[in-house]
Amino acid sequence: MAKYIAQIIVLGAQVVGKAFARALKQEIAASQEAAKRAGGGPQGARRAAANASSGLTLEEAMQILNLEKIDAEKLNKNFDHLFSVNDKAKGGSFYLQSKIVRAKERLDTEIKLKQPPDNENSAKPS
After folding, report:
1. Which residue among 70, 75, 86, 112 sits deepest, i.e. has the most Cβ atoms within 10 Å of its Cβ?
2. What is the pTM of this model?
3. How far is residue 84's CA from residue 96's CA, in Å, rounded to a whole number?
4. CA-CA distance, 102 to 107, in Å (whole number)?
């Protein structure tokens, strides 16, 4: 009886070990693919940080707000429309509203990253 229990434990450990190894390989491949898409370097690191903080990639955010390119005016127009259409009081979905807000936050972050940094030295009086 003890022999069978030991065999079951060993077999279970092998199955779990193989599943863990397969999941780890998939995660590494996904990480590498995401790094390639982000562009690598400092720009890629900023983009990856923005993706992690909002939970959305830039592409997903643009799809949610129906944008082909990042344009602040069209972004605000689409956001206002989609947010009001999905208002809970009008029979909309709170889940969709939250996705719309996250998408806007992600795109606002991208717009902020693309803006050139202000030169602090030029703002200081001599």
Report:
1. 75
2. 0.58
3. 11
4. 9
Helices 2-38 and 41-54: crossing angle in degrees, nearest 10, is 120
CA-closest candidate to residue 104, choices 27, 41, 74, 5: 74
Local confidence pLDDT in tens for the 126 residues of the chain? 888 999 999 999 999 999 999 999 999 888 877 777 666 666 667 777 777 777 888 889 999 999 999 888 999 999 999 999 998 888 888 999 999 999 999 999 888 877 776 655 544 554
Q: What is the 3-state secondary structure (H, E, C) of 46-60?
A: HHHHHHHHHCCCHHH
